[in-house]
Design a protein that fits this description.
- With about 210 residues, the protein is mostly helical.
- The chain has one domain.
- The protein has nine helices and three strands, in the order βαβααααβαααα.
- Strands 1-3-2 form a three-stranded antiparallel beta sheet.
């Protein structure tokens, strides 16, 4: 992602509820639609910043997406997004502050659109699996355990860029946690915890 002057603010769709992941991916198409590149600020404005779930989903999906997640430095940037938002949630802040240098990071629109197109099919498949269950694992105060786990993932992501496939595991774990909070699906949270443990174990063994 490169830094450029911010584009004009996008149409505010973040107040409208999103029914499922496929609808979220569809909404993301509108981010920066009048520019040649898409900033992180435009993406977050498009999906909303009122809850922790959008931060996790954006970071996870960008890390997973081909053509974007493969760009050197992108996993580390997404780790910064997660670390800042998770840290502020754990401190009890109602509003997440992000630095201008992070919000200004951009990706070429062509790559962005291609990545969203790739995400459409798995999004539809995942939506069929999501449903409210085991909600004690997603509702307060359990959301703090999710935030702490995601903070640990974020801190481990920079070295993951040097270890094949581990950044993808981190991106998938963040996506699972985002889906868990988004749909109040505790099973997704359990899968996220399991994947986090496996991914961090691989990182520690590789570094050791």
């Amino acid at each position: 992602m490169d830094a450029e002057p911010p584009e004009a603010p996008p149409t505010d769709t973040s107040r409208e509820p999103v029914a499922n992941l496929a609808a979220l991916v569809e909404r993301l198409k509108h981010a920066g639609r009048h520019a040649d590149s898409v900033s992180l600020e435009a993406i977050l404005d498009c999906v909303g910043r009122r809850t922790f779930a959008p931060f996790l989903l954006v970071a996870g999906l960008i890390t997973l997406a081909p053509l974007i997640g493969d760009i050197p430095g992108v996993p580390t940037l997404m780790a910064s997004l997660v670390a800042l938002s998770a840290g502020q949630l754990l401190l009890g802040r109602d509003h997440v502050w992000l630095p201008a240098w992070l919000l200004a990071r951009r990706v070429p629109r062509q790559r962005y659109v291609q990545a969203l197109h790739w995400l459409k099919r798995p999004a539809r498949w995942i939506d069929r699996l999501l449903k409210p269950r085991l909600q004690r694992l997603t509702r307060p105060p359990a959301h703090l355990a999710v935030a702490l786990t995601c903070l640990l993932i974020a801190l481990a992501m920079p070295p993951m860029e040097l270890i094949p496939f581990t950044a993808n595991g981190a991106g998938l774990a963040l996506t699972l946690f985002g889906l868990a909070l988004f749909a109040e699906d505790g099973l997704m949270a359990l899968l996220g915890y399991a994947l986090t443990g496996g991914t961090l174990a691989v990182v520690l063994l590789s570094l050791g």
